[in-house]
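Thread title: Can someone regenerate the structure for this chain?

I was given the following input by a collaborator and told the matching structure tokens would be attached. They weren't. Posting the sequence so someone can regenerate them.
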Amino acid sequence: MPTVDETALRQLVDRAEITDVQYRYALGTDSHDWQLFRSCFTEEVETDFSEVVGLPASRVNADEWVRSLAPTMESFTATHHAMSNVLITFIDDDHATCVAYVQARHHKPNSTGDSDQTVYGYYTNQYERTAGGWRIAKLKLSVRWMTGNFAIFAGTAQ
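Best answer:
Regenerated them for you:
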């Protein structure tokens, strides 16, 4: 039976920790646990949702970004962010890239039509090892397709 060297063992633990951060991101969003959600990020984070909202990527203070996102997510009756197909590539001991599929469902009864909107795509996140563990330093959502009523985002906090 082959032996596992220290580097391989550390990377297995790191993969588990990075995957947990991806899942905390989804759970924090859907449960409106903004402290849990905030625990996913470095002090500053680059966010890129340009394929969804058309705004360019920006580097922001993570606390401010979480505070600005919370009202939008809380405006929905329910959301469901399902993550899968997590693929992690290590750049070095303290940096990694994680690509993970996402199906992000948003539900809000309204007068504009369908009450649901779903984004199908993947996140490409850059991770850094910090004193508190692995954290997302760059967050990018790539959209493959969307279904439903995007108008349910209208009127939500920006």
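The first strand starts at residue 41 and ends at 48.
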